Amino acid sequence: MSEFRISTEIDGAEATMPAAGPREEFIKLFTKYQRRVFLFILSQVPNPVDAEEIHQEANVIIWRKFDRFELGTNFLAWACQIANYEVLKYRERQRRDRHLFSDEFVRQVASDAIEQADELEQRRQHLAVCLSKLRNKDRELIQQRYSAGESGKSVAELIGRPINSVYQSLSRIRRTLLECVNRQTQAQATP
Amino acid sequence: MSVESLQHEELVQLLELLCEDRLDHDQAARLEEIVLGDQGARRMYLEYLSLHGTLYWDAARGIDDESEVLEVGGAATEPVDRSPAAGRRTLVAVAVWASAAALLLAVGLSWRPAEPSAGPEIAVADPSGLPIIEKKDSAASGVDTGLTRRQPATIESTPAPQMANRVEKGSTVERVVSPDAVVPESKSSVNPQPSAGSLAEIVGFVDSRLAAQWQDYQVAPSPVASDAEWLRRIYLDIVGHIPPSNDVIAFLKDRRPEKRAEVVDRLLDDPDYVRHSTTIWSNLLVGRVERREVNRPAFEKFLRGSFARNRPWNEVVGELVAAHGRNDQNGATNFLLAHLNNDATPATAITARLFLGTQVQCTQCHNHPFNSWRQQQFHGLSAFFKSTRSKPIRGTGAYALVSGPFEEPPFYEDRRGVVHMAPAGLGGQRVDLKGSEHPRGELARLMTGDSDPRLARAMVNRTWARLLGHGFTTPVDDMGPHNPPSHPDVLDRLSQEFVASGFDVKRLIRWICSTRAYGLTSRMTNRNRIDHPETSGERLFSHVYTKPMSVEQLYDSLLVATQVDQATASDWESVADNRRRWRSQFVYSFETDENDEAVTFDGTITQAMMMMNGPLIREALSQQPGSVFHHVVHAPGSDIDRVKRLCLAALGRFPSSSEMRAITEMLPLRSSAQARQAPVSGPLAEGLQDVFWAYLNSNEFITVP
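Structure tokens for the assembled complex are given below, as produced in the milestone run.
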């Protein structure tokens, strides 16, 4: 197996769990939706490091507002609302001319991301399958690219390949993965 | 090609640039245009980013865990398409040693404290730094929960940069914890007074005072320490050795905001906390040099018992000061036996210095030129020790600490030759010892009671210095009006709380480790350059000051990193023996009145030779079954995985890309598939030894970050 371990827990899995106290319930939801909140933020702030930072800020607020969350309502929507606010705060802190994208773009993307949340989650599960189908060399490269603190640039340095050729390989691999996920998703949609 | 597919291709290219952080502003504008103009493009954008983000999220933590490394097998990281120039070479032994030296350089260079990182982003702290979690319903959940078994209920985030301001404004931060939510965790008689503040209150106060000073000095604090740096620091500080690889991996993988607070709690409950505290205090109280009158095992047993039960500090000190009896039966007696020399002077001096943070040695003969201690006070204190003697017990090798009844107050001569009588006393308090059977018992009562704040202040200052790298005063045990503390309000508050907590040592450590300052990196930035006590004299705690490892920390860390003791399979006693023998090579006694001793463990040649060529290092690099090196060499996986694991074992982090580059250039590393064909041997085995050797001998290894 590769280092990419994509968990395949499905929504509603906790329904079969014995009833726990509200705090335990909250912790479970909190943990379960960590990744999806992160992805929601990343769609608006495409740099993973910045997105992670905003995510941490959002986590603090989410914890603090624990009391105000009503169990049984949509946790992801609630958490994304908080995350969205943190994204806005982040953008306010940042100088305007450093914004990559306009406010309008960010708004649009955020609302799309919420709409498509479940669909994207499905795709994420297919990704696990697709990764295992990659050629070993490709999987190794993508793994290096995303392992602690690396970027395409540092991977190129690390393995002594020209940087452009690494960018090309990464691009090819990501496209392959995207294609593969598309196929998997379609296959599932048409039984 | 249709217009649609042309646009699709352009979109993918832009998205690729975005993923590699190479999108410029014009391209971003173009991407926006395409995405906003077409619903399909919007979908595509989200799908791409979701793919990118998932890969990042799932892989960002490098090696996932021990078992997984072993499984990685075929998928491990073999460099793809190596250019011929960087291709394999055969290394002869000479070249290997040269390369080891080069590696040492590479490791050394890539790690520099005080590397300035430019830009405004330094003010952005990671809120996952150290949130303080307090249990809200401690009333409902029984007594022993307290601070040790906390569950996430409410998070008070200390470190976020805005937080400092928030605390100052006092508006946004809710203080959720009522004062009585704090329950003592000590199993002994620690009995906090109701006025004890909560963790959040105390830490919030300290944070806000430090932040206010940063503002006054116009410095910005360093960023929050990385998880790897912080974990190494907290392990060395609390349990006295580096974290084992497995703990590092588990910690890096853990994404919960409360993980740092949990580690602090876990380590304070670890048996190695007891061991480490015992080492620190036995070095301070009786020294490292063996003395005839000192029964070290008995003394350490006394300390171990005290720290294991987290006995109130005033109680422990009281017992040390008042102890009497045989040194093999009552371990506490060894403290004074080590300093008595049948003369009250050294015992007086060390008692004042260690427990009261006051240097009085010179006031024996004259009034102190700077501090308010007078000759009379010195003799007033020494009066308590006058009737104390050490007595060998025939035929046993043991000594007894005995004190006869108090006879009469001592006399002393001032510099003009006038003779004075010195009534026993401490601070402003006099005691009539006439007829007292046990004068030191009286002293213990005075020192540990409410009237003298110095015991608490000295302990707070010392603990703070031990954790943050500098105390509020320098030297840490020379406090008084002549040497005002850098942060009097913080020192006052922590001391009051320490008293109110019932002199709870663990709680004191937890407060300090929970401050924002302790969670910061030790690297300085351009914006806190002046915060450097050695050069500017300023101590602002806007970053953590690095500390050299103690001899014991180094020894224990080498064992954790290499597990050579596992290989030689020895019992606890002989491990302790080996450790003592090993450290004795660094320790010299000056044989002075005050039992001064020096440790040649400060980056000197002696130390360098011991480290580089000593038997411990030699064993660490031999392939004995059970050792880390043996394990790494024989584990499945690629050779890059081996390098990663050696770095993780030694430094608690993954190799940096420059180190990795240096290593791949020097060693004939193989993919996991190739590695399966043949075991590690020849130049490669030697090369991996060199890598490990270089990591263990790096400055980074011997520094508490």
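The two ends of chain A are 28 Å apart (CA to CA). Confidence is low (pLDDT under 50) at residues 1-19 of chain A. Further analysis is deferred to the final report.
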